[in-house]
Structures are given as C-alpha cells and as structure tokens.
User: Fold this.
Amino acid sequence: MSCWDRQSLRLPDAVRAAWTSVRSLARLTLALAALIIPSCAPLSHSEGRAERLADSESRARSDMVEWQLAARGVNDRRVLDAMRAVPRHLFMPAEVRSEAYADGPLPIGWGQTISQPYIVGYMTQELRLKPTDKVLEIGTGRGYQAAVLSKLVKEVYTIEIVEPLGREAERLLKELGYNNVHVRIGDGYRGWPEAAPFNAIIVTAAPDQIPKPLIDQLAPGGRLVAPVGVDFQELVRLTKSDEGIKREPLLPVRFVPMTGQAQKH
Assistant:
C-alpha cells in the first residue's frame, strides 16, 4: 500500500474515551484559570501607590515606637502595640499630615496642639491601665489619644471644649471603628459625673491646679495623670486610696492651658 488505510488508524474505544476525558479536563483547567488569573493581575497605578503609602506609614509608626518611645523608657508592651496600631496621620489636619510621626507636637487648629508621640505614650503608660478599666480624657483634640486608649481599656469617655475639634474627633473615631469611645462637647472641668467613677483620668491641657470634681470621680485605686502649672508645668500622677490622695511628680512638660472654668480658679 502506498498510503495508509484510514480504517487501520482508528483508535480503540478505550483509548478514544480516555482522550475525550483528557480534553474535557483541559477545558476545565482553562476555565478555572480564567477565573483565577484576573485576581492575580498586577495592581493598577493607583492601587500600587496606595499600597506603597500604607507600607510607608506602617514603617513610620514602627520607627516612631522604637526610637521615640521604647528607646526613651516607654516599655509597657500593650501601650507600644496600641501606638503601633493606631494610624496617627489620620487624626492630623491635611497640612501637617506628612509630619504625623515626627518627634514633636503639632498644631491641630483653634490654638490647640497634639502632643508629641513620646508624651502620649508616657502619659498612657503612667495611667497603669487594665483591659477592664473605664477611662475619662479631658481634652479630646482630634481624637488620637482617645483612639490609643480605646485599644487598652473597656470604655473611654472624652470631653472637648472646642466644638469644631470635638465634632471632627467624633467623626474620625466613628469612621475608623473606635466604637468604645464616647465623645462629649463641653467644659471638662466638672468631668462626666453620670459616667463616674473612672479607673483612670488623663488631662491633656494644663490647669493651675487639678479640678476637685475630677479627683472626686476617681474610683478607689484610680489614677489621674495631668500637667499642672502656668509658667512652669509639671506632669503629675494622683492615686486614690483609702488613705487619701498620693501625688507623684513625673517630669516637666509644656501643654496648652486648660480653658473654661479652670481659668476662673
């Protein structure tokens, strides 16, 4: 025969069935690949930029914690972890956001400032917080300190006398999911009586003396950390016990003065 007989080239039924199965499997593999490959596609330019920015901010927070806090003696692991987690830059006005992790205080509008990261960490550590605590903050600012506290305790109550700041803080805290923070607009001098007593109170503006209503709202064993003074300010911690109030000096500081009723005393 000078050419092949087509009939002699016919494959056995078993082989043809196997070949049909292989082709079906190949088609299924291609269909699955079509579903999977789009999810692995390269990031768009905007997505890639957002991812790089998030990585940069995360590194900045880690560097802040290591070099500004841990290196200076803030060693409470829970505090360090909280400050590593809270996106400080999101609590900043747009014009100073690029400096969010710098080692210094920054203006946040209406004559107010946000404390440098070290002071936030140090004051938080000196409150000696427990996960079951209820904390009062006097001077919300834009909400950064409250966000840090919310990672460490059960409930945070915070009061801001400057209404635009307080409203912005309330919006930011809600937007970012800090749902255990309660914000009030008003004068913090008298505290938050209906939510008292508090296991800890932190004051982020300086009165010339600590308001008595705040001391009264401390629970037994409660701690209060506040800057005190006018020309010379000192950070102090008060601890309430059955024997009375123990006062401890911590370090010299410089805060904006406490306004409202505190200025009348």
Q: What stands out?
A: The first strand starts at residue 106 and ends at 109.
